[in-house]
Amino acid sequence: MSGTTPQTQSEATASFLKHFTSPSIGGQVHPSLESRDDPITGLSMFSKTPIPAEERLITCPASWVITPEICRNAIMELGSGDVKGKGKEVDGWKETMLICGYICLHWIYHDREE
């Protein structure tokens, strides 16, 4: 995208978490969690205070869940403009392949010039 300055990882994470927890999305993140850069794991979530074992850390809205069916349909629609054939081209793909393909296509389409 021309004319924009890329965000740092911490800026992008803060932006994502603000969007994710906005009322329009409805995601929830435990108030004790924060993102930090770790020399071993990279950008990761850490607790600022002890969290009880049964405490919920993150709640993801159902509309954000990526399922193999969603991935298969999106990839097929992109490839043929239609999902009626139910994905002969992607038959045999493992769930991880479908999900990785779906995410990568999002990156490609996000970064392309409009």
Topology diagram in text:
Blueprint (H helix, E strand, L loop, with lengths): L8 H12 L7 E2 L3 E6 L3 E6 L10 E2 L8 H13 L14 H17 L3
Can you walk me through this structure?
The structure is a single chain. By secondary structure, the chain is α+β, with helices and mostly antiparallel strands. The chain is built from three helices and four strands. The protein has helices at 9-20, 68-80, 95-111, and strands at 28-29, 33-38, 42-47, 58-59. The strands form two sheets. A two-stranded antiparallel ribbon has the order 1-4. Strands 2-3 form a two-stranded antiparallel ribbon. Helix 2 crosses helix 3 (95-111). The longest helix has 17 residues, at 95-111. The chain is globular and about 50 Å long. 4% of the residues are buried.
Brief digest:
The protein is of the alpha+beta class and 114 residues long. The protein contains 3 helices and 4 strands, in the order H-E-E-E-E-H-H. Helices cover 37% and strands 14% of the residues.
What integer value in Å does the Rg equal?
A: 18 Å
Mean pLDDT across all amino acids = 84
Strand elements, count: 4
User: What is the CA–CA distance across the termini?
Assistant: 9 Å
Notable traits:
114 residues, alpha+beta, 3 helices, globular
